[in-house]
Amino acid sequence: MAKGTTVRMHRRSLIVLALLSVVGFLMLVLRLVKLQIVQGEELQKMASEQQLADTKINAQRGTIFDRNMKPLAQSATVWTVVLEPAYLKTEKTKELVCNGLHEILGIEKEKLMELASKRSCYVVVKKKIDSDTKDKIISFMTANKISSGIRLIEDYKRYYPFGKFASAVLGFTGADSQGLSGIEAFYDKVLRGEEGHVVTAQNAIGTDMPFDYEQMIPAKNGKSLRLTIDETIQRIAEKNLREGILNNKVMNRAVIIVMDVKTGEILAMAVEDGFDPNEPFKLPDDEVKRIEELPQEERSKAKNEALGKQWRNKAVSDVYYPGSVFKMVVAATAIELGLVDENTPFHCSGAIKPCEGVRPIKCHKRGGHGAQNFVEALCHSCNPAFIMTGQKIGTEKFFEYYKLFGFHEKSGIDLPGEASDLFFNADGSMSVTDLAVASIGQNFGITPIQMVTAASAIANGGVLVKPHLVKEQLDENGNIFQAVEMTERRRVISESTSKRVIDMLHRNATTGSARNAYVPGYRVAGKTGTSEKIGLSGPQGKDYISSFCGFAPADDPKIAMLVFFDTPKGEFYYGSAVAAPVFAKAMREILPYIGIEKKYTEEEMEKLETSTPELVGKKVYEARDIVQNESLTPIIVGDGDEVVSQLPQASERIPKGGTVVIYTNGDSDKTKTKVPKLVGMSVYGANKAAAVANINIKIVGAGAAQEGLISVSQDIPEGTEVPIGSVVTVNFVHDDQVR
Prior knowledge:
The protein has about 750 residues and is of the alpha+beta class. It folds into four domains: about 1-40; about 55-225, Penicillin-binding protein 2a (Domain 2) (Alpha-Beta Complex), CATH 3.90.1310.10; about 315-475 and about 485-600, 3-Layer(aba) Sandwich (Beta-lactamase); about 610-735, Trypsin Inhibitor V, Chain A (2-Layer Sandwich). It is built from 24 helices and 31 strands. The strands form ten sheets. Strands 2, 3, 4, 5, 8, 16 and 17 form a seven-stranded mixed β-sheet that branches. Strands 10-9-21-20-19 form a five-stranded antiparallel β-sheet, with helices on both faces. Strands 1-6-7 form a three-stranded antiparallel β-sheet. α3 runs antiparallel to α5. The longest helix is centred in the N-terminal third of the chain and has 37 residues, at about 1-40.
């Protein structure tokens, strides 16, 4: 019995042992499956991270050029200082290296010693040092016969050679060369290229192994961009915008956009006041002072808001009420639908009630315009006439064409942060009152880029095009990698409607409410706009946006321009006096630059300027006769027989009937006069004051007719001493307060 029990126990033990072996084997298999299949990829990654140290190397960021290949943003070579502790074998060597870097870089010696003691072959000490500092380090290494332990890695720093120029368009980059705003952000992947790497092997205790176990994978440089921006046109826009801000005491920045109406290329996009992309986090002194006066807990938020405001591209990221500029769109819609023509009659009594129970909407002219046709209503910028036109269009068609002109969708411009419109209701539904105020450009919000794009559709024959800022992408050798073609979004109006509206807007700029945008010798077309900023206090309890949108030449439009001033606080606030003169001054420079030839009317020919003849070296009597034959007035200074100098200089442009001073001895050209006050006068009054002071005035900003003009600025301040005969440019506007 004992023997049988022993046998059974033995068998049971074998069975248990077998089961345990099977279970153990299965657990081992499961564990291996988990390690190799389930966690295999993760464990391999962890092992690689423990065995390899990976340091990134920045690629050279591509250059941003203007359309004429002038660099606007480029990457300058800088260096990263790297320590190689594994090669610093002795404390004496560490001391020597750390002392040298302390003196050159200004980093605390204790910090350097800590870095030099790391178990590594690659420790970054300082990034983006300049060439002079790099040369000092090389000289130190040479003088002390240091061949290893310090390494200089080539890197790049973004540089904007023209400072604030086009900063809202270009944007800026961060510390790691990443684009943070503007073109730099939108095309970051194109410009940035591909990072390189320094991969260093590590031993079992985590120390970097020697140079033989290091691999460098070079970076791939980014592509460059050729913009549609023209540096000359951009400078003209920025200059005139700054002048407009100063003359009109503009409080909330301003915008000029210049666009090729046929291709959608943006030739200029000026947004003032901007920032220097070389120092994007630097605020103006007055803003810093304002923030420092705030409680401590509010300063950080205020600083971030101030930075965001100065980086914000107002041309694409802000919406505004377009005001009467939008009447060109309403006119085009009504003519396209056959609801009105140029001779359709309207009557303006000074106000109109859209429906019963609603307050009347006033016209800017008290007492109204009386009987007028549609062209006259546009030239008068008559609110009642355009409210009646909106009623003819109706809410459904109004919203349909609002969408066709691109206002209910983003323009698609290649910039970040483009805003969407703010219409009454997303589905386009409108009340009778909504339709009335929308017909005069009030109570709905669009962006400046949407407005100038819609104006371009009117100007180019009726096709809505996509605005864009990049013309081409270029490889490292300057070859075209990718060209950006013109994109037609859709046809909006017929060529016939386009031509008819252009003719109306040209008449408006010649004899209508847009006369202050008139440019002698050029056919321009356009519309003024003055919109209320509802809910804000300002002059007379309101703040305004003053704008002008137009194009030229009217007989074959090439460029459209929108001029936009937010919250002018000067003597005037309406678009005809604030924005239209800036449009005219900018166009006067841009049109000849792009090769548009002047074509004067007979009336303009009578008022043409003339070139001052060459008089130096001639006898006084000869010089006097030459001046008089050019319809100019001579003034002889001195008692010599021969002309030694003259003012204005030869070939300088002055008005017919102007004064030429003939100097006849060496000291006579020192004769001075004081510039009188020439602001706030009629053309006659300013000419009279100039004649009394023996100076010339050059009239700018005026329409073909000079009646009803008032001077608003002079380029040489009152009281300035100048040689007699000097030319002072005086800017005139029509003081009709048309919105």
